[in-house]
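Final report, closing paragraph on structural work. Over the funding period we assembled a curated collection of sequence-structure pairs, and we close with a single example.
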Amino acid sequence: MNKLSVLLLVVAFGLVSTAKAQSETSIILQGHYQGRNIYVQNPFGSSGVGFCVTKVTVNGDVTTDEIASSAFEIDFVNFQMKVGEPLEVEIFHKLDCTPKIINPQVLEPQSTFETISINVGDDQVLNWKTNKETGKLTYIVEQYRWNKWIKVGEVEGNGTPGEQDYKFKVTTHSGENKFRVKQVDYTGRPRMSTAATFIDTEMKEVEFYPKKVKKEITFTQKTKYEIFDSFGNIVKKGFGEKIDCTTLKKGLYYLNYDNTNDEFSKN
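Its predicted structure, as stored:
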């Protein structure tokens, strides 16, 4: 075979490959293995000859699943994956049709943790131990203060089934304190731990003055606070011993601090 013939064959092969590439596209699903398979509805192409899906890969490897049917299952068992491992599924299909993924949410992390223990130590560190995690989700740390649960921080979850240990430095108020953690997955429903109780016997109740404010509010010690106007809008929040009130308009305000509620007027 002369050089010209070889060149023509290479060009012809390239044209065929390009034509094939231009005749199909793909759907890519990314997430983490949650122990469940994916189901696909697979229509015929617009010509009525052959099914829509041409190939499926899992993390780059072609699957051995039977895809020449109106519906098929992408089975991850053969890949010997562990729960929580990263997963990318690519479904190649003809341009003139589109397969339907029945349950794409199975690759999204789910909150399945169970609380083994949760407590606050004398060092004011919240410690919790969990198991049965199957999805890498953030733990939201909450404190019960001012008659409501408020977010005080976040800790990234490990997302693996064995026992997991977590810590978070908290800020306590006088008297009884309550803390908990929660996760929110794709369903939007929160999954919460039990509450940990800690009684701060060293911290005295916080007071503030004056009740008629011109420039600033002073607390008897540093505390977390929130200020609301008469319409219920939050106008200031933070942590400290003083609050600059010079920018507040004249009127009545409601103040949350320590673990209590009060009010003051701005003159």
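The domain at 114-200 is CATH 2.60.40.10 (Immunoglobulin-like). Helices lie at 3-22. We thank the funder for supporting this effort.
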